Sequence to fold (245 residues):
Amino acid sequence: MRIDVLSLFPDMFTPLKQSILGKAIDKGALDFHVTDFRDYTENKHNNVDDYPFGGGAGMLLMAQPIFDAMAAVEAQAGDKGHVVLLDPAGRKFDHHVAEELAQKEHLTFIAGHYEGYDERIRELVDDEISLGDYVLTGGELGAMVIIDATARFLPDVLGNQVSAEEDSFQDNLLEFPQYTRPADFRGRKVPEVLMSGNHAKIAEWRLKESLRRTWLRRPDLLNQRELSQQERDLLDDIKHEAEFE
Ligand code: 21W
Fold:
């Protein structure tokens, strides 16, 4: 996969190029490019923003530097890819969106740092994504979160670590509690069943604790999941146990 980012703060992406994504880049699984669109301005002060026609607070990102930076990406990559505009009014990012983006051959993110975009920029855009209902100072962190979560779905990015498929949210259940040595940490003991060697009992305990955690913390996730008869029975137990706590 090729990923391009258009940003005024290319240095913000340095940590992303290292660590886990750095390995993916080294292996050739990911081809990552950041373009500083200030390099494409055509005015003598290299301005990328201007006042809104009609008045109002804040500055808007101008169309020209974005159009020309995008043309440079297209010239280099052969296409502009699936273009994502980071915008607080976009569709909300989640695990499903990450999996969808991971299917694309080429993604291009536009990360602004202003109050808004000249509307004509949207002519270049295929998708508008928000991280959630809070205000950031710009789109860069949004682009980084999306790139990180999306790249986990690419073969060769996680390497031999657990597959992204097995991680939480795929199955709409939170993870069960886990323990490592010692079995007794200053009087706090590991649940007996985990040391029983009975794999069927361990699997049932883990499923029940996943259900309990999800029911307590994220009941919205349970509504997105088809429950088996066993899961419904375990959930009934959990609700009874909660009444007697
Ligand atoms: C903050 C952009 C406020 C636009 C009219 C006049 C990208 C983001 C951003 C930013 C405004 C994301 C207004 C979650 C975010 C981002 C900077 C609009 C209000 N309307 N996901 N003034 N939250 N934020 N200002 O902020 O670019 S993805």
